[in-house]
Amino acid sequence: MKKEIVQTEKAPQAIGPYSQAIRTETAVYTAGQLGIDPATGELVSNEIEGQTRQVLKNLQAVLEAAGASAATVVKTTVFLKQMGDFAKMNAIYGEVFGANPPARSTIAVAGLPKDALVEIEAVALIA
């Protein structure tokens, strides 16, 4: 099975030795996206709402670059610095994935790169 590296300027560049996503013949596997503005390389906000919105915007940009979309996502993993932010993150997440949401795991973590509050990764099917 062939794999292709996905790269887009519409999402933040990798901050380590990894790809924004990998596309195979049938699926896209994204790296975790943070609430980083691709133009500045900095977090857009110190609050969960602003970071979640940017995370989802970045995730959608990577999915689109790979030929997928939010509608073709089958699984996400959400990493939260504070589980107390779950309801706020969940409300914004629901705006993107509300109608037919993918399977999801949400995990509280001790820390995230750049001291972010949320990171989301996804697996999507190629339409």
Précis, in short:
This protein has helices spanning 48-65, 86-97; strands at residues 4-6, 21-23, 27-30, 73-80, 103-108, 118-125. By secondary structure, it is of the alpha+beta class.
Described by strand count, sense and barrel closure, the largest sheet is:
6 strands, mixed
How much helix is in the residues? Answer: 10-25%
Second rung of CATH, namely the architecture: 2-Layer Sandwich
Q: Ranges with pLDDT <50 over ≥5 residues?
A: none
Overall, the morphology is globular
User: What is the strand arrangement across the widest sheet?
Assistant: 1-2-3-6-4-5
Order of helices and strands: EEEHEHEE
Mean pLDDT: 96
Q: How many H/I helices?
A: 2
Structural class: alpha+beta
Extended strand count:
6
- Beta-strand percentage range: 25-35%
List keywords for this structure.
single chain; 127 residues; alpha+beta; 60s Ribosomal Protein L30, Chain: A; 2 helices
Write a structural description.
- With 127 residues, the chain is of the alpha+beta class.
- The protein has one domain: 60s Ribosomal Protein L30, Chain: A, CATH 3.30.1330.40.
- It is built from 2 helices and 6 strands.
- The chain has a 6-stranded mixed beta sheet with strand order 1-2-3-6-4-5, covered by helices on one side.
- Helix 2 (86-97) links the parallel strand 4 (73-80) and strand 5.
- The radius of gyration is 14 Å and the shape is globular.
